[in-house]
Amino acid sequence: MGKFCFSTQDLKDIMDISKNRQHYVITGVSSPGKSARNSLVFFNRWDNEGNQAERYTECLVIVPSQSNPTSGLAQNNFVVFAEAPRKEYAIILDFILKKSRGKRQYTQLDNYIVVGENVKIGDNCDIEPFVFIDHDVTLGDHCIIKSGVRVSSFVEIGRSTTIRENTVVGGQGFGVERDGDGRTHKIPHLGGVVIGDFVEIGALNTIVSGTIDPTIIEDHVKTDDHVHVGHNCRIEKSVLITACAEISGSVTVGAGSTIGPNASIMNKATIGRNTTIGLGAVVTKSFPDGVTLAGSPADTIENVVAGRKALKQLISENQDSN
Q1: Over 60: is that where the pLDDT of 20 sits?
Q2: Cβ(169)–Cβ(210) under 8 Å?
Q3: Both 38 and 186 in a single domain?
């Protein structure tokens, strides 16, 4: 994100500030509960026991208005009390990024390939024409990047991985907060994407940047065309995702699972290992290892079959009684 020095004067129009310090330096963002220095951190709920003040040093920490953090937090950090911490995080981070954004250069290579600064490309990579690689990207050895791919900032791609035509890796996620008057505030996504080794991402996929920590695609994952993977997801090793599947934000898909065409998985659901999700299934909750899911809302195939039998029997009994 770069180094940004802000003052209480900078933020006075955004919200009330809990203490008057001359300036702080913010160099990044951090997830709640992780130790951090010089970071922007927000909490939708503050628990003094679970979120010890000593984890944070010279951070801008946004906490709920009704919370009562220990004095240690205020001694070492710039504390902001807010009615809606996630919304204020979005506003402040957007402000910081606009203030700190410098002019970085792009280089046009042969075949209309455009590459940003601090890009590391491994040995024996095959990058086709009309590829865009943004700043701060790493490609492992023997990668194949097909024509029309866009790789955004903070993306790491492992060795022997293929990204197929017109896919976007690391684009901004759909995190939005509303004001009381209906104004919307997009949450900047800085977590990036980490893709493992021997992965194949299909054509016209969208793999969204994590909000704070990266979206993760582990080794040997294969995706078909027209797949969407939302922010903060973790797709574990050897998962297969077929055409037009949609995986919402913060979903975990266990290793060895298969997701059928047009399936959807609800935000924050966890899917166990070696699970099969059938065609068009709409998964609205978490499931354990080794099950087969079908239907909308999705359930195990055993429950779906039992439910259909019970419904058929009920209809038959009603017809008989009439």
Answers
A1: no
A2: no
A3: no
> Is residue 76 domain-resident?
yes
Nearest 10 degrees: Cα torsion 195, 153, 202, 200: -30
Annotated active-site residue in 185, 189, 226, 231: 231
Non-local CB neighbours of 110 within 8 Å, separated by 6+ positions: none
Supply the CATH number for residue 270's domain.
2.160.10.10
Written as six digits, the tokens of 316 are 């038959």
Please check whether residues 112 and 84 belong to one and the same domain. no
Residues 19, 153 within the same domain: no
Rounded to an integer, what is the distance from CA 67 to the centroid of its chain? 27
Residue 3 to residues 39, 41, 165, 229, Cα–Cα distance (Å): 10, 16, 35, 30
Model's pTM, two decimal places? 0.87
Is 220 assigned a catalytic role? no
- The neighbouring-strand residues paired with 187 are none
- Confidence band of 109 (pLDDT split at 50, 70, 90): very high
In this prediction, residue 288 carries a pLDDT of: 96
- Domain ranges, residue 64: 4-100
Domain closes at, from 100, 118, 152: 100
Model confidence at 285, in pLDDT bands (50, 70, 90)?
very high
Q: Tokens 């809302």 map to which residue?
A: 297
Residue 256 lies in a domain: yes
Closest among 92, 91, 84 to 65, alpha carbons compared: 84
Among 37, 72, 100, the domain-final residue is 100
